[in-house]
Each structure stands twice: as C-alpha cells, then as structure tokens.
C-alpha cells in the first residue's frame, strides 16, 4: 500500500514541537494555520496598500517568508510574488501550499539575504519580524536596498525593544524582561532555566533610534519614513474617547504634541514600522 504523504500542517506542527519544549508555549501554536494565514496576509496587504496610498505593487518580494502566509495573499491579488527564507524546511512547506493553491505567479526560494541579493530587482520588498533574527542585520538591509527597483519601497517591521507590552511578555518567548536582555543571557533563561525552547535565535531587539540608525548606516541615500507617526494622529488624536479628547486638547501645543508622539513611538507601539526608499 502506498504510504500517505504528510500534509503541510502536520509537517509544520512537527517542526514547532521539535523546537518548543514548554507545554504552555506549544499551546500558543495550537491554532488553525489556514485561518491564521488568511488573517495575517490580509492585515499586511491592507497596511501596505495604505502606506502606498492605495497603490497595489505589481511585484513583491518577502524576506523571511516562513510558510508563505503573506506571499499567498499577495499572489491571490494578482501580484507577481517571491518569498525567500534561510530555512529550507519552511520553503518546502511554502511550495506545497503554492501547489495546493495553484498559484502560478508565486515562487519560493532558499536564500540568505545577509549574504546575497534577490535574483532580480523588485518594486516592493517586505520584511516583517525577521530582521531581529539575522546576525548580520546591516548586510541584510544593504542587500534589500540593492534588490530594490528605482522608485520602489521597503516595508520593514521589527519588535520594539522598549514597548511596555513586550517588557512584561516578550514577543517570541512570552517571558518577562527577556526583551531587555542581551542574546547570551536570554538564551540561558529561555532554554536552560525555563526550558521553553531548544535555543534562542533572536539576535537583538531594536529601540526606535537603533533601527533608524541601522537603516541610515548602510548608505545608498536611504530615506526613512516612520509609518507609526500617522497612526499616532489616527489612533490617538482622532478617536472620541474621553482620554483621547484630553490628549487632543493638550496636543494643541506643538511641544506637548511632540513629547506625546515621542512617548507613543518609543514606549507604546509594539513594532517599529518603517517605509524605506532609495534615492
């Protein structure tokens, strides 16, 4: 009898179980992978379209695509899409999902962006919650810039090291204060003492100044726009709750508004979200 092949969901769950020791942490991953993928893909697609003023990119590269949730959603919207990742196993899962969805405009490739550029240039590149896992992060940003077409954009999102949400439960291991530690000590606590995972692959988390300095340091006349500044206007100053009304009243002073905006961007937002362009 022919042996039945494993589904991509089964392969993914086995991968999670291999690297996750803690039962409580494993339970966080006991989700409907398909449903989560649709939510994640649509959310990023809507955010990208908003950042670009409603313009849909014709070609799209995702750095650190994982199992391809975002790539699949973009491809379904008719965008020529390539997902790259350093882990061959998740690239294989992505190709299984491509075949399942019959998406001819979608491809996945095993590639380390810190060592080489994409096979061709793209008008839009996205890198979400990936850069903090890359040891040579400056080389990664440099190669993303070299893979960008003239007039294109890079959408870069990294966890905020000083976010009040993540200080008490970091975004990767859900352990208090780990976000503030060096990688060496985080590894000791997470994998040795608490035995939550077999190892910590997060190289560093970024403050607001850290990530901006990193982007400017690679050269190529990179222009950086903080998209969270627009969210401050929309989510804090234009809502109708009593607290936000009070903040809006205080923010009539430009100095007070700048102080509140600085606090919001540095200590409240969960992720630093930057839109990069090369001139």
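Sequence proposed for the structure above (279 residues):
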């Amino acid at each position: 009898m022919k042996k039945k092949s494993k589904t991509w969901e089964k392969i993914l769950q086995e991968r999670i179980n291999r690297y996750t020791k803690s039962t409580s942490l494993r339970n966080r991953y006991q989700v409907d992978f398909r449903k989560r993928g649709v939510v994640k893909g649509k959310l990023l697609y809507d955010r990208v379209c908003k950042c670009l003023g409603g313009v849909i990119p014709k070609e799209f590269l995702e750095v650190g695509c994982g199992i391809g949730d975002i790539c699949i959603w973009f491809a379904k919207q008719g965008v020529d899409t390539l997902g790259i990742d350093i882990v061959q196993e998740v690239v294989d899962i992505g190709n299984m999902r491509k075949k399942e969805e019959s998406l001819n405009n979608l491809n996945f490739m095993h590639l380390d962006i810190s060592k080489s550029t994409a096979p061709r240039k793209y008008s839009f590149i996205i890198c979400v919650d990936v850069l903090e896992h890359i040891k040579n992060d400056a080389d990664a940003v440099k190669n993303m810039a070299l893979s960008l077409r003239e007039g294109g954009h890079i959408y870069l999102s990294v966890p905020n090291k000083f976010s009040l949400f993540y200080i008490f439960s970091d975004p990767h291991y859900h352990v208090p204060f780990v976000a503030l530690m060096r990688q060496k000590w985080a590894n000791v606590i997470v994998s040795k003492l608490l035995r939550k995972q077999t190892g910590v692959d997060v190289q560093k988390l970024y403050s607001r100044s850290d990530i901006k300095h990193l982007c400017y340091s690679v050269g190529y006349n990179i222009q950086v726009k903080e998209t969270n500044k627009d969210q401050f206007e929309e989510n804090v100053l234009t809502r109708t709750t009593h607290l936000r009304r009070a903040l809006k009243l205080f923010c009539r002073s430009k100095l007070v508004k700048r102080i509140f905006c600085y606090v919001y961007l540095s200590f409240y937002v969960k992720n630093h979200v930057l839109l990069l362009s090369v001139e």
